[in-house]
Amino acid sequence: MENHENISYQQLLEQNVSAVSSVSEKHEAEASNELENILSNMNVSTWDRYRAATWIEMKLLVHLAAPAVAVYMINYLMSMSTQIFCGHLGNLELAAASLGNTGIQVFAYGLMLGMGSAVETLCGQAYGASKYELLGIYLQRSSVLLTATGVLLTFAYIYSKPLLLLLGESAEISAAAALFVYGLIPQIFAYALNFPIQKFLQAQSIVAPSAYISTVTLVLHLIISYFAVYKIGLGLLGASLTLSLSWWIIVVAQFVYILKSEKCKYTWTGFSLTGAFSGLPAFFRLSAASAVMLCLETWYFQILVLLAGLLENPELALDSLSVCMTISGWVFMISVGFNAAASVRVGNELGAAHPKSAAFSVVIVNTVSFIISVIASIIVLLLRDVISYAFTDGEAVAEAVSDLCPLLALTLLLNGVQPVLSGVAVGCGWQTFVAYVNVGCYYVVGIPLGAVFGFYFNFGAKGIWLGMIGGTVMQTFILLWVTFRTDWKKEVKEAKKRLDNWDTKKQPLLLE
């Protein structure tokens, strides 16, 4: 009798695998239900359960993560290409673009992305619980808050030159960086709309349209940048204005998609004055917690660049770190794509009351992301002597970059796990806890260590980076420990409680 049950169940596993061979042909909710059922069935061996579950989870993950990775990498390529255009104007322009981009612009990027992650938590769990109408309300509230924040950030951009001088940067580099930053002011408000829209779409596993939009925009960005920087001769200002324009193209195109797509007809029901402006204080608190969590991560390596500007040879230090940070940031976008996938998958499964599926998703997404990061690290080490020539022709910079590449490879390995764990935290709503961890690991341990190695022991840029890697290692191990000790049944209850608090209607707004 037992053998007969196992054979029947084996046949069922094969049927399930076949049924989800293409996620696009099957509603994600049905695949999610099957995944939870397989993981919960104790009448079959662990190997058979996990084999079938891995197949389903990989299909769901690839369907979501692949376009998300493409979106983040292409968007980052726009900033990366802008830096390359500036770098070929000269070493001063490369240092200025690096300082303006990493020292000022990343400040706004981290804040806006962090605040937008509140949408990621709430929309992911609401979609999993079939409370579809709430997604549009969350999108509107987040856009209002981020736009208001953008007005305040504008002042930091306007006064970027005195701010950089106050931080001890050289007058020549600060003046050039400020010129670059002035052209990025329109980008602030593109961020304010883009991140909520992006999270709104990702929560519904709608990612491919954003990838297509970003691809077309990248091509336009390269063409316009070439003419603005070299043919018209607008230099640094032309490069940054083109970058701002490209981000606005993405925002407008994505919003047109939301208005026209049948996939969003239940989640976007039009602008609601009451929905957009009600409950903003409570929404701000969650957005602020999300912002603090991600800002502390984003600003961490931003501080590395600012510290490098205080070294004895700031131009060489900034140029070499700029190249390494740009490469790191581009590969980091792969992990950010998996971060988004982890957040959506965990949020959806918790909202659907699937604790086993949520836990299993965490394992799979971390494993895949880490393997990709190992491959990227090996490639960087193999190309360490020539990789800088894509950015600048300077031989001194090439030698400095080659010297930093082992640290770059180690950073890439850590980036294969750490951002994904942050995505899990966003999916669960742990932003406040992670913010405390980030403060301790990054700012109590990492930065002081980097300053000691860099300045006291005269290790330069390598010492600053090495010390800061120590903080990242500590943070990664803490998040790993917490994540894999999580009581996922308790997290399901917390997700339900959170949605009940944010929704006065106790029944789903749309029943399938």
Gist?
The protein has 512 residues and is mainly α.
Low-confidence stretches: 1-26, 504-512
Structural class: mainly alpha
Order of helices and strands: HHHHHHHHHHHHHHHHHHH
- Total count of helical runs of at least 4 residues: 19
Count of discrete domains: 2
Helix content: over 70%
Q: In whole angstroms, how far apart are the ends?
A: 38 Å
Beta content comes to under 5%
Query: What is the radius of gyration computed over CA atoms, rounded to a whole number of angstroms?
Result: 23 Å
InterPro entries: MATE_euk, MATE_fam
Main location: membrane
GO molecular function: antiporter activity; xenobiotic transmembrane transporter activity
Family: Belongs to the multi antimicrobial extrusion (MATE) (TC 2.A.66.1) family.
Structure commentary:
- With 512 residues, the protein is an all-alpha fold.
- The chain folds into 2 domains: 67-278, no CATH class; 281-500, no CATH class.
- Helix content is 82%, strand content 0%.
- The chain is built from 19 helices and no strands.
- The protein has helices at residues 2-19, 28-40, 46-87, 91-128, 133-158, 160-166, 171-182, 185-203, 208-231, 235-260, 273-277, 280-308, 314-351, 355-382, 395-415, 418-428, 431-456, 460-483, 488-502.
- The protein is globular and about 65 Å long.
- Residues 1-26 and 504-512 have low confidence and may be disordered.
How would the blueprint of this fold be written?
Blueprint: H1 2-19, H2 28-40, H3 46-87, H4 91-128, H5 133-158, H6 160-166, H7 171-182, H8 185-203, H9 208-231, H10 235-260, H11 273-277, H12 280-308, H13 314-351, H14 355-382, H15 395-415, H16 418-428, H17 431-456, H18 460-483, H19 488-502
Helix pairs in contact: 1-3, 2-3, 3-4, 3-9, 3-10, 3-13, 3-14, 4-5, 4-7, 4-8, 4-12, 4-13, 5-8, 6-7, 7-10, 8-10, 9-10, 12-17, 12-18, 13-14, 13-15, 13-16, 13-19, 14-15, 14-19, 15-18, 16-18, 17-18
